[in-house]
Membrane protein (Helicobacter fennelliae), 206 residues
Amino acid sequence: MKKTWKNFKVPNFRNLDTDLVLHNMIFVVIYIGAILMFFSYMLWPLILDFKVKYIEERKQNLILTEVQKDFDSSKDRLVGLLTNNKSLLSRLNNAKSQNIITDLLAQYFSKKSMRLLSSHIDEESQIKTTLYQIQVQTDDIGKFWEFITALGESDTSIIISLPVQIQKASMQSRIYDIVFNVETAYNVYKLNPEIKQIVDSALRKK
């Protein structure tokens, strides 16, 4: 049978016990409050711990980001410095100065001698300088200047120390005795592996 609004009965709330309803509502509120307080008491330390960890992680990430930016900036400046001074740094990092001098002496002169005068490491710059005295004989002064040019074009730090003494072996001789000093410089500073890799990479680029 179909229900109609006419057949609908409005509940009668007059017989409700208002005190009981009130007591039930107060109990429900107190019960829910107690549950919320219990969970808050249990979860609050976890929430605080999570908050502290989150803040610390944020700080660490910010610090790491700034450190990485500074490192990248310093690396770029270092690469720029190395690129701009590539020729000089390549020479200072070449430890074969003595071998180069010896090979060139053998190439240009049949009679020659080379004597070590001094060797010194500057503690501040970590550059090792070595001074040699060289004596050669030649019948062609042009060969000596070719030798000097070859030294200058070699990939090493070699400086001819003045004066250069040139004199004939005798009044009638066409043989010249030439005495001069040569100073070499070499970088002995030990870089850490990461920086050394950057330096080597920059110096290898053409």
Notes: Residues 88-192 form a domain with the Alpha-Beta Plaits fold (CATH 3.30.70.60). The longest helix spans residues 18-84.
